[in-house]
Structure formats: structure tokens, C-alpha cells
# Entry
Amino acid sequence: MALLDNRFSGIGTGVAQGSYAFWLGSGISRDRIIGLDGVLAKLLEFLRANATGNPNCAYRLALQRIIEMAVPSEDERAQIDFATTSIQWTCLPVLLSRLWKQYSAVLSVELAGQPRDYLLWVGLDFANTFANQLADAEHLAIGMLALEGAVTEFASANWDGLLEAAMKELGYEDTFYRVTVTGEDLRNPAAAAILYKFHGCALRAIDNEGKYRPLLVARSAQITSWSSNDTFKIIRDQLSALVQTKRTLMIGMSAQDANVQHLFATVNQHRGWKWTDQPTPIVFSAQDLGDEQKNLLNVVYGDEDYEAHHDEICEAARLQVYAKPMLLALLLNVLTAKLEVLASDADAPSLNPDARAAIIDGIKVLRDRVADAGNHDRIGFARALASGLARARHQIQNGTSSAGVQVYFPIDDQPAHLMKGKLALKSSGQREAAVALGLIGLDEAATSWASSVDDPADTRSGALRLTSPEASARIFLASNDNTIINLLECGAFDETDEDVVVICSGRVADRQQRSPRGNWRNGSVGPRYIALGPMLSDATNLEELRDQFRGEIGL
# Structure
């Protein structure tokens, strides 16, 4: 988050405004590839289990060759015993971490008498391995970025189904992405986002083996021939146009594949991006740039500029964050940018620019608190963020609060800058809610209270919980009084709950009017209702607004 706030703020803004396409490599699925239950471990165990004591056994020879690719030390060799399951090899995690960068070379190993894709299709038990994979934090973050309309074009060298699995976990069908392997796929019905799987698609191959299994590009020879294979010509043309029309953020991709290098080389031929263009046209999520990544920058910007400005070009293109934290940070950045736009459009005629800037600072206080809280368990954080935001959005917009994890409900399905002045958002209640979050953040920074979230799968959870030394309250956001009635009727809270604060973006009806048959003679205080819209209209300055808001929260 600090990088996106400062040195790489242009990239953060560019992603929020929909300026970047994501180019995705195996690094976004690293934990699903090299884990002890990952695909590489499965392949090694398949070969070991089928190997015999015969020194000429095809399985034994293939296993030995793959192990040699990992360049084991003498100590590591001593830990490898073909007579025991590979998971018992102490050195297995180290071998897997070295092999994952040689994925295509590993799958290029041939077994005598078997089809060339034998290791891929049979060795990995392809249909079972890739049919029901669980998404990781990276894939969920990408899914939410797509649903928020920030990134709608993806080029992936991965044929796994993890992006599709993430979208399904977020509550959407596979059809959200227009998955594209060949030009024929481009003729399918329109979708909200396009996913070019230019090395093939596992789910398609499982569903239609005859058509899509031959299109799985996994071996080194297939990668080399991809650039001249007529089957992929339309996709090559589309990807070439993508490189020229959208800025590129490469995540988990070394750019070592010859077909990727060739695609980007065409940009310079057509007088494409300049290294001085802002935000930076080509960016890698990498601690250090490898030779292949530097070569790609060279072919994009041209020899003359690359040689004259080598250090500046490489430094601007190197976003030193790994895929998982970077994608989660980009997601938080996009959500924050949208809240900033919403808050800036809230009707508060007497608040000056400094006051509005302070409210945005308050939003960022909450953002940073969320980021700190999520840093230790990123998959848990991704799921909690998705489900927490979904519940808050369903509550404020529709007044619903069903049991269980809700379908992800984006703040808006367009990039942040297109939300400015958007008529459809005027009655959504989100503008006032964004101001409320800013005010909450300002008082969190002043230690008036601390924010947290309850179980987002619980019907009675609010958007967040505020806790002071004296009391704690569930905070619900509601667009209008009808939404409040819906929340009461669905059981999110009731009129006797004294731990509830409802922040309404509009006016709030008298309690007795809302429930005329209610009996208020038992002394119950019940929920506290804040009509934030009128409060903003009447506020003359920020301090007055903060004092009134804090007082009505009542902690």
C-alpha cells in the first residue's frame, strides 16, 4: 500500500481507472503448484510409484531427469529414496520450489512409447486434478478487480481453472469471463471481462477433450511453435492489439516464453509505447528483473532509448512486490479510490476542500487498518474482504442480510473515474456511506474507537463494529428508511437491540411511525438511527460534523 501511495501511485491510479491489462503467469498460482499437495508433487509421485528397479524403466528415467533439473546437492540426493513416497523426502519442498520455474521443461520430458502429452494428461491425472481446484488469494483478488470493472482484459499463460474457481466462489457463473483459447471462442456471447488463455484451458479440455486437449500448450516445443501456428493467429492478433492499447502489468510471469517476447516486440515496430509515458506502460511484479524481462523492455522501447535510459526504465518497471500482497493491495487501492469518488460527490455544500480531503484521509485510515489485519493470512483476508463487502453492499442497497456468504456485490462495475457524477449512484446511499467511513476513520485515528468486523456470514453482522473503552456497537449502513424496514424484517437487527447504530443516507422516520404497533413502554432504548444526509447538508464545517456524528454514534 505504501508503494501505491507514493512511488508507484501512477500505477495504482491507472489500475483504478482501467488503464492496465493483466498478463498472468504461473507465479499467481505458485502455492497451488509447488505445495506438497500441488501438481508438481503429484507428478513426481506418479513417476516414483510407477518406477521399477530396472535402470532402463521409462518412469525411473523420467523421474531421474526431472530431479536433475532441480540440481540437488549431495545432502539432498541422500534424502531421495524411490522406495518411499516422495512426500517423505525431506528435500521435496526445495525440489518443488526449483522446478516450478521450469514447468514447461518438466512437462517436456518424454516417456518411451507414450504420447508427448502423457505427463500432462496422465501423469497429472489431468481431469481430476484441474476440475475442482481451490482458488487462492491472488485469484479472488483478480476476480474482485474484474467485478469492480477495474481490470477487464487478462492474458494468462496458465491453463488451470483457478480464476474461474475464484469467480464461482464469489458467486458468479463461469460465463463472467469470456474464456478465449482460439479465434472461434471470440464469437461467443459477450461477457463482462475477457480472459485470453493463450496456452489453453484445462476446464475446456476436460469438458471437450477432442477439441481442447490438443490446444494445451505445456511443453517447450509447443511454446516455440505457438507464434507460427495458424490455430492461434486470431488470438495473436488480439493480444498484439491488447499490448498496444492497454498498459501491461505482468504478475507472476517471467516473460521467458518466446511467444510472449515476440508479441511485445511488435509494439516497437508500430511506434508503440514510450518509456516516458505515464503511468508506466510496462510493469513487472518482481523483486528483481530477469534477463527475459529486461529483453522485453528493450524490444518494446527500442535499442536507442533502452541503452540511453536503462536504469530509469528498469527501475520504473520493477514493482517490488510478490503477486499475493500486490494484488490484494491493488484491490484495496481500487476500493479506496471508489470510496474517494463517492465521498467527493456527497451533498455537503458547506464542507470546504480541506474538509473533504480530511474525510478521504479517514477512509485511508480504515484501509490501512484492513491491510494490517489481513497481512498474516492472505487467503483468509481475501475471503473475509469479499464476504464483508458483499454483506455491507446488500444491506445498504437492498436491505437484505441473508445467512451465509453473500454473492459479491461490487461498489460499482465501472472504473473509479467513471463513477464521478454518475446519476445511478445518487440514490444508492453509497456517497453518504463513504463519508461515514471517512468520519469513522478520522475518529479511529484519534483513538475514539477501534473498528473491526464480525462474522460476515452471520445474518446479524453489520458493515463493521466499533468498540470504545465504554461500549461496542454493530454499525449498519442503509440507503433510506425503506432499507431500514427491510433490514428489520429480515432479522439483521430488531427494535430492541441496544448495540446497533444505523447510519442512514437519507432521512429517518420516527420510530413509532416505522412500527406503530410496537410497545416502547419497557424502557428499551433500541437502535440509534443517524440521518447522515441531512446532517451533511446542515454541517457548516468538519469539526462540527465530526462532533455531531461522534455524539450520535454514542460510544
Q: What stands out?
A: The radius of gyration is 27 Å.
